[in-house]
């Protein structure tokens, strides 16, 4: 019976299911990018290099490093919560 209902409702519900599927895939990709520790680590390395070549001051470095470390900590906490579920 379920197959017949799916077949009969496919012209109406098919596009809706497709949009929902696409939305879920986009959300998954966005979440993966937001929880990417390597991105933040790369920014930390770039920041350190900029300090070493004199593009930024110690104060600017400290401020940005603090922000990036907080972001890294938040990512790790989110991953930990996600793994516990």
Give an account of the 3D structure.
- This protein is mainly α.
- The protein has two domains: 1-34; 36-85.
- It contains three helices and no strands.
- The two termini are 35 Å apart.
H/E element string?
A: HHH
* Low-confidence sequence ranges: none
How many helical elements?
A: 3
Shape: elongated
Helix/strand/pairing category: mainly alpha
Q: Please estimate the helix content.
A: over 70%
Number of domains: 2
User: In what range is the share of β-strand residues?
Assistant: under 5%
Distance between the termini: 35 Å
Whole-number average pLDDT? 91
Count every beta strand, where a strand is a DSSP E run of 2 or more residues.
0
User: Any idea what the radius of gyration is?
Assistant: 22 Å
Largest sheet: none
What keyword list fits this structure?
85 residues, mainly alpha, 2 domains, 3 helices, elongated
Summarize this entry quickly.
With 85 residues, this protein is mainly alpha-helical. It has 2 domains: 1-34; 36-85. The chain is built from 3 helices and no strands.
């Amino acid at each position: 019976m379920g197959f017949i209902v799916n077949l009969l409702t496919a012209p109406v519900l098919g596009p809706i299911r497709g949009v929902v599927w696409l939305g879920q895939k986009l959300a998954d990709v966005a979440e993966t990018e937001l929880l990417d520790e390597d991105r933040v680590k790369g920014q930390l390395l770039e920041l350190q290099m900029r300090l070493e070549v004199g593009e930024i001051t110690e104060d600017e470095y400290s401020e940005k490093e603090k922000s990036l470390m907080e972001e890294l900590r938040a990512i790790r906490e989110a991953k930990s919560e996600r793994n516990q579920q």
